[in-house]
């Protein structure tokens, strides 16, 4: 049985690829290609957990409630059984897996070898690996944006060689951005020639489109595919700065478990703070990534893209701070706070309009939100500073 692994990297359109595979699951199945459900309905991130070291813990294991080494071992055995059952029922000639967690969470040869054995035990002794590569500095800034969405409270991104007060682990950024190390690690396990790098840039995509490029790279059949709606989830600069401060008051996890009071927080930010000016790349941070990964990128270029003068085109970062319209800032903040207020009023018990809604009816406290937004506006000079602030 043929196996295809799409392993990321992070921030290279993986969500769009996974939504595409999900939307066309039945079409592909009719042509003998299975996009599994047992390893995750859309993102096959459970497959990464299948290769974890016994003591490995992160947000994925927390969401699965895996607290002990034995919990993880039992889960891995159950996942193997579920995958085998799905394969038996599908009678597919080819299986496709897709998750950026395969690259970002499996950082050692031992973990990738464990994944290889997991697939072999399920009846797939070999696999081809597709990995999309993105400019390291662009990738780092996009990772920061996603981290804020997930609860990170610090500035960012960090330099590739220093945490620098951001709260990030530079080793994570090094792993995702070091494309030579990624290719070599997966080639050592799955074999030279079985890792297929693709560049994440429109000029390199087949037909200038990521999904059509993936179809070609994966060798998927020519079908009347359904394509997912394009959407922009990245927060603009104002939303990014407010939300990361908000995260300090309403963290994503409490005592190792998802915070039930976080509620619809990101949905509100995404609704009101995605169409403004995006965060600029600081010239010194961009140059740090260019210098740190120069040898890695050149190795990849010579090996796989010798026709290019450089792997990622050189460009300069914008100097100075983001400029944001005062009126626009106030309009965005007011619109979000108004919706939150109306949601609070809607959730009040009937007949008790004169009483404040219980705190547990809200995703987060209005007092904290007011303080967070107020502090943000004072920092950028929209509101005057005061002793009370």
Q: Strand order, biggest sheet?
A: 2-3-1-4-5
Percent of residues in beta strands? Answer: 5-15%
CATH topology of the domain at 2-134 and 182-218: Rossmann fold
Q: Indicate the mean pLDDT.
A: 87
Radius of gyration: 23 Å
Q: Major sheet: size, sense and barrel closure?
A: 5 strands, parallel
The number of distinct β-strands equals 7
Named at the architecture level, the CATH assignment of the domain at 2-134 and 182-218 is 3-Layer(aba) Sandwich
The helix content is: 40-55%
Unreliable parts: 353-366
Which outline best applies? globular
Structural class: alpha/beta
Give the CATH level 1 class of the domain at 2-134 and 182-218: Alpha Beta
Terminal CA distance: 64 Å
What structural keywords apply?
5-stranded parallel beta sheet, 48% helix, 7 strands, alpha/beta, 7% strand, two-stranded antiparallel ribbon, 389 residues, Rossmann fold
Model description:
This protein has 17 helices and 7 strands. The radius of gyration is 23 Å and the shape is globular. The protein has helices at 14-23, 25-30, 46-49, 59-63, 69-90, 101-105, 109-121, 136-150, 170-177, 179-190, 210-218, 237-249, 265-272, 283-292, 294-304, 326-346, 366-379, and strands at 2-6, 33-35, 94-98, 128-133, 195-199, 253-254, 257-258. Among the domains are: 2-134 and 182-218, Rossmann fold (3-Layer(aba) Sandwich), CATH 3.40.50; 237-277 and 325-379, no CATH class. It is 48% helix and 7% strand. It is an alpha/beta fold.
């Amino acid at each position: 049985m043929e196996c295809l692994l799409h392993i990321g990297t992070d921030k290279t359109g993986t969500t769009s690829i996974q939504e595409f595979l999900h939307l066309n699951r039945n079409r592909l199945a009719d042509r003998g290609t299975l996009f599994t459900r047992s390893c995750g309905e859309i993102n096959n991130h459970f497959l990464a957990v299948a290769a974890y070291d016994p003591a490995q813990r992160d947000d994925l294991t927390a969401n699965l409630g895996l607290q002990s080494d034995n919990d993880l071992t039992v889960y891995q055995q159950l996942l193997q059984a579920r995958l085998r059952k799905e394969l038996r029922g599908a009678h597919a000639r080819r299986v496709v897996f897709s998750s950026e967690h395969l690259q970002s969470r499996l950082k050692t040869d031992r973990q990738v070898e464990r994944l290889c054995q997991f697939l072999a035990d399920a009846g797939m002794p070999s696999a081809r690996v597709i990995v999309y590569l993105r400019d390291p500095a662009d990738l780092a800034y996009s990772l920061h944006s996603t981290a804020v969405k997930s609860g990170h409270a610090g500035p960012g991104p960090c330099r590739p060689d220093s945490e620098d007060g951001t709260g990030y682990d530079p080793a994570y950024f090094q792993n995702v951005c070091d494309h030579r190390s990624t290719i070599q690690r997966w080639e050592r396990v799955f074999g030279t020639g079985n890792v297929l790098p693709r560049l994440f840039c429109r000029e390199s995509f087949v037909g200038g489109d990521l999904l059509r490029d993936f179809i070609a790279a994966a060798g998927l059949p020519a079908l009347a595919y359904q394509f997912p709606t394009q959407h922009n989830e990245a927060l603009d600069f104002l939303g990014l700065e407010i939300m990361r401060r908000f995260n300090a008051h309403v963290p994503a996890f409490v005592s190792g478990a998802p915070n039930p009071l976080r509620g619809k927080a990101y949905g509100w930010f995404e609704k009101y703070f995605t169409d403004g000016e995006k965060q600029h790349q600081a010239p010194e941070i961009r140059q740090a990534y260019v210098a740190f990964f120069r040898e890695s990128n050149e190795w990849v270029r010579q090996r796989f893209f010798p026709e290019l003068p450089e792997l990622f085109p050189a460009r300069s970062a914008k100097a100075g701070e983001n400029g944001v319209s005062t009126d626009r800032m106030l309009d965005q903040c007011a619109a979000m706070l108004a919706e939150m207020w109306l949601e609070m009023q809607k959730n009040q018990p009937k007949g008790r309009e004169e009483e404040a809604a219980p705190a547990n009816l809200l995703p987060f406290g209005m007092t904290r939100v007011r303080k967070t937004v107020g502090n943000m506006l004072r920092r950028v000079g929209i509101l005057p500073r005061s002793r009370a602030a």
